[in-house]
């Protein structure tokens, strides 16, 4: 059955090495040509499958490859922001976080010639400790956020957050939160809305988890990265300033990041047959025109009610 489910897709536009090279080692590296190459392959795949998506660009990618942002916009997708560099929210002072958002928003809007409404933090980095950041996200001019993964993961997540889109009151005004999909199984919240989870888990898990989430009244909110479709992906030459220990760590990270990539495109095609995808901005726009209570909190049954 085609497009049985209804979903919203976000692509985080970055290189595979961002997390290790910046967050662990503190080095900045220029975005690579691989970002463009893999994003163009994704664009072709989306076009063939009738998929529209929101592309959360790093500002540094938009500044280095503005034509890519334009191409994404011209293809009918939505541009959005993923920070300027791939810094974790918690690693920046509030002032530095604000400056990075302003710079990134300007870079993406200038490159794409379109207004940006959406933001997603690196590493789904909004949680209780970084909650203040949402005041800044709203103040800078974003209207919706998709930075909360509502489960208790080892690296990220916020298990007390609602599983459905909802309004958050910030000191700078209301912000619409669109959390990534989790499913409630066996009394646990399990991640289901993402590239890495789809890549590593059997397809039957993704299919059943997404179907169950939607039957609970949740929209499917899914994330992906352009680099996840590159296979084979030999280790590129590494910068000479890295120490031997850092090279070793980066090799290990590359091995982890490339695991099961040979299945990504096939699984994405299955996903697009299971679920129709639109931009996250379209979900925000639908909420804007609604006059009554929010759609999802009214219809959601098991998942939302446990969080109230
Ligand atoms: Zn990222």
Overall CATH class? Alpha Beta
Shape: globular
Roughly what fraction of the amino acids lie in strands?
A: 15-25%
Q: Overall mean pLDDT score?
A: 92
The strand count comes to: 11
CATH architecture: Alpha-Beta Barrel
Order of helices and strands: EHHEHHEHEHEEEEEHHEHHEHHH
Structural class: alpha/beta
Largest sheet: 5 strands, parallel
Ends apart, CA distance between termini: 34 Å
Bound molecules: zinc ion
Radius of gyration: 18 Å
| Count of individual domains | 1
CATH superfamily: Glycoside hydrolase/deacetylase
Binned, the helix content reads 40-55%
Fold-level CATH name: TIM Barrel
Catalogue the unreliable spans.
298-302, 304-308
Helical segment count: 13
Task: Explain briefly what this protein structure is.
The chain contains 13 helices and eleven strands. It has 308 residues and is α/β, with parallel strands linked by helices.
Describe this structure in words.
By secondary structure, the protein is an alpha/beta fold. The chain has one domain: TIM Barrel. It has helices at 18-24, 33-49, 59-64, 66-74, 94-112, 133-140, 195-200, 203-215, 244-258, 264-274, 280-288, 295-299, 302-305; strands spanning 5-13, 54-57, 78-81, 118-119, 144-145, 166-170, 173-177, 182-185, 188-191, 220-224, 275-278. Strand 4 (118-119), helix 6 and strand 5 (144-145) form a beta-alpha-beta unit. The chain is globular, with a radius of gyration of 18 Å. The two termini are 34 Å apart. Residues 298-302 and 304-308 have low confidence and may be disordered. The site of zinc ion (ZN) has 5 residues, from loops. Zinc ion (ZN) binds at residues 12, 14, 82, 86, 122.
């Amino acid at each position: 059955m085609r497009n049985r489910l209804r979903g919203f897709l976000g692509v985080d536009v970055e290189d595979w090495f961002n997390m290790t090279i910046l967050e662990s080692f503190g080095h900045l590296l220029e975005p690579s040509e691989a970002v463009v190459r893999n994003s163009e392959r994704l664009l072709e795949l989306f076009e063939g499958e009738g998929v529209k998506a929101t592309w959360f660009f790093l500002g540094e990618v938009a500044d280095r490859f503005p034509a890519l942002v334009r191409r994404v916009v011209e293809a009918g997708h939505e541009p959005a922001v993923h920070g300027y560099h791939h810094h974790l929210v918690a690693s920046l002072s509030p002032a530095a976080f604000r400056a990075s958002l302003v710079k990134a928003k300007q870079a993406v809007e200038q490159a794409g010639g379109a207004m940006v409404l959406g933001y997603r933090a690196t590493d789904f980095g909004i949680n209780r400790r970084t909650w203040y950041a949402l005041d800044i996200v709203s103040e800078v001019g974003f209207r919706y956020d998709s930075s909360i993964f509502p489960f208790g993961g080892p690296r990220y997540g916020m298990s007390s957050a609602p599983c459905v889109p909802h309004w958050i009151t910030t000191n700078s005004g209301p912000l619409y939160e669109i959390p990534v999909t989790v499913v409630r199984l066996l009394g646990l919240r399990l991640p289901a809305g993402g590239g890495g989870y789809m890549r590593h888990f059997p397809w039957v898990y993704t299919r059943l988890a997404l179907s169950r989430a939607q039957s609970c009244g949740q929209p499917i909110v899914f994330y992906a990265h352009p680099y996840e479709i590159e296979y084979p992906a030999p280790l590129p030459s590494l910068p000479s300033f890295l120490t031997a220990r850092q090279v070793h760590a980066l090799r290990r990270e590359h091995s982890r990041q490339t695991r099961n990539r040979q299945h990504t495109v096939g699984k994405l095609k299955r996903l697009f047959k299971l679920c129709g995808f639109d931009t996250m901005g379209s979900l925000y726009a639908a909420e804007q025109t609604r006059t009554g209570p929010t759609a999802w909190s009214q219809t959601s049954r098991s998942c939302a009610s446990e969080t109230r």
